[in-house]
Description:
Layout: E1 6-12, E2 15-21, E3 44-51, E4 54-60, E5 70-76, E6 83-90, E7 95-101
Antiparallel strand pairs: 1-2, 2-5, 3-4, 3-6, 6-7
Amino acid sequence: MADPMRVRAQVAGANATVRVLMSHEMETGQRKDAAGKIIPAWYIQEVMATLNGKTVLTAEWGPAVSKNPFMQFSIKGAKVGDKVAISWRDNRGETRTDEAVVA
């Protein structure tokens, strides 16, 4: 299982700014190891964010995204105490979900 994501959500006016640091190797499938064999592709394909259970963001990623990706976005109408959940699924079928409370 992947390491936990670092999720921070802070209210700024009528919006909340969400910052997410994901822990993932994100291999493109184009690099070779020391023995000259191609390292298989392994990357996040889908990212989803919810606010109190309601989907507010979906994204489709590919192998061009960097290792340990950082993502930042705003949510309209979020209030202090609301729950933000971030989920991802990679091309191997692994998943990860982490939550944060809006501060």
